[in-house]
Specification:
3 domains, alpha+beta, TPR-like_helical_dom_sf, Tetratricopeptide repeat protein, signal, Serine Threonine Protein Phosphatase 5, Tetratricopeptide repeat, 4-stranded antiparallel sheet, Jelly Rolls
């Protein structure tokens, strides 16, 4: 009758657990761990487990003491296979305590579990269990438990090993202790995104220039983290080159900015700052501001014109031509771009290319009230004041 009650109770526990267990992980049978160890009479030993797989959140273990040549009737993994739904004993289900050995000896032992080697070594010397994460003070011949990282510190996110300490209660004969361990792996955590790693990405995001421009950067950085987590395992992301990570941050950051509507405030601010710097003659600083917009793929034709003008003022004519041509691709009718392109060719000793542009638009206005010729004269005066004299100024003006 007692056997029937026990069987019914076990069935109800497993069935209930299988209903409520979240399908967010699996028993990693490939990484199960089994060891037979001999404990000398009145002695203590420490057994170090194999490395637990990344993302382990729970551990099912079974301890069995055997007499003489006794062998285990069935392994822990085989017991799990006999249950239709292995997730039924996941998430710390009490059903796991019934997964005891079908055989055990008469000997008994106490045991303790440690999360670090120092504490385990101290236990072996003195029997001190103060630093143990789990202690079985009552001597047993067999035992089975589920340890969850939520309740016990035996499983640490920054460590993948545990130490089991056994103390023999047989004062005359040696004991044979069999320990079996089976890890439960959380699928999400197995990708390596533990708390410390997520914090490192968020902290890195918060010191980025884009995040500094946002009044409340938390949502932006969480968005960036979520997208990185979905696309990469943490270990994969860490192995990327710095230039590859930079591109990922840029691409994902732009997606998050657009989704949040933040780009509508960040980039206009950068443009306003660049405009002020240009008026102050701080062209190098203005270039840095506009380049942030360009690098993030959000530059307009006017941004390229500003960048080209700044490069002219800093005598970087090749770069000026490069970025002005990018602006021309976006709007070839923008005469301010065409004029700066002509100036860049002129300073770059390509009078022929400059002359073609100067002549082409000489009869047009660059604004509703400023003619092409007037704008050229104004620019030449600005260049001379900035210390950019050129013998071809007069040649250009004669064209008009």
């Amino acid at each position: 009758m007692n056997f029937k009650i026990l069987f019914i109770s076990l069935f109800i526990i497993l069935k209930t657990s299988s209903i409520y267990a979240q399908n967010d992980g699996y028993w990693d049978k490939e990484r199960s761990f089994t060891k037979e160890n001999v404990v000398s009479a009145r002695d203590r030993i420490v057994v170090k487990t194999d490395d637990l797989p990344l993302g382990t959140t729970e551990v099912l273990f079974r301890i069995t003491l055997l007499d003489g040549n006794q062998q285990m009737a069935s392994s822990l993994v085989s017991v799990l296979k006999s249950i239709p739904d292995p997730t039924g004993i996941s998430q710390g289900s009490a059903g796991a305590v019934f997964l005891l050995s079908k055989i055990s000896g008469e000997d008994k032992c106490k045991y303790a579990i440690f999360s670090n080697e120092t504490a385990a070594t101290e236990y072996k010397k003195s029997g001190n269990t103060d630093k143990a994460c789990y202690v079985q003070n009552e001597a047993v011949s067999k035992d089975a438990k589920v340890l969850s990282m939520e309740k016990y510190s035996c499983i640490l996110s920054n460590s993948n090993t545990m130490w089991f300490g056994f103390e023999s209660k047989n004062w005359i004969m040696n004991q044979k202790v069999v320990i079996e361990i089976l890890p439960w792996v959380n699928k999400k955590l197995s990708r390596g995104w533990v708390l410390e790693n997520r914090k490192s990405i968020i902290n890195q995001c918060k010191i980025s220039e884009i995040a500094k421009k946002i009044i409340e950067p938390d949502d932006f950085c969480i968005c960036t983290l979520d997208k990185i987590q979905k696309e990469y395992k943490f270990q994969e992301f860490q192995k990327l080159l710095a230039i590859e990570k930079s591109k990922i941050y840029k691409d994902i950051g732009n997606v998050c900015l657009k989704g949040m509507g933040v780009s509508n405030t960040v980039y206009p601010d950068l443009r306003n700052e660049a405009s002020k710097l240009m008026k102050q003659g701080k062209y190098g600083d203005a270039i840095d501001k506009i380049l942030r917009i360009v690098i993030n793929g959000m530059a307009t034709d006017i941004d390229f014109n500003t960048l080209g003008n700044a490069y002219i003022m800093t005598k970087q004519y090749g770069k000026a031509i490069k970025f002005l041509k990018e602006g021309e691709k976006m709007d070839d009718s923008e005469l301010l771009i065409q004029m700066n392109l002509a100036h860049a060719y002129l300073f770059n000793n390509d009078f022929k290319a400059a002359k073609a542009i100067y002549k082409k638009y000489q009869s047009q206005n660059v604004t509703d009230s400023l003619s092409w010729t007037q704008k050229v004269k104004q620019d030449f005066e600005t260049f001379e004041k900035a210390g950019l004299p050129n013998d071809d100024y007069k040649r250009v003006l004669k064209l008009f």
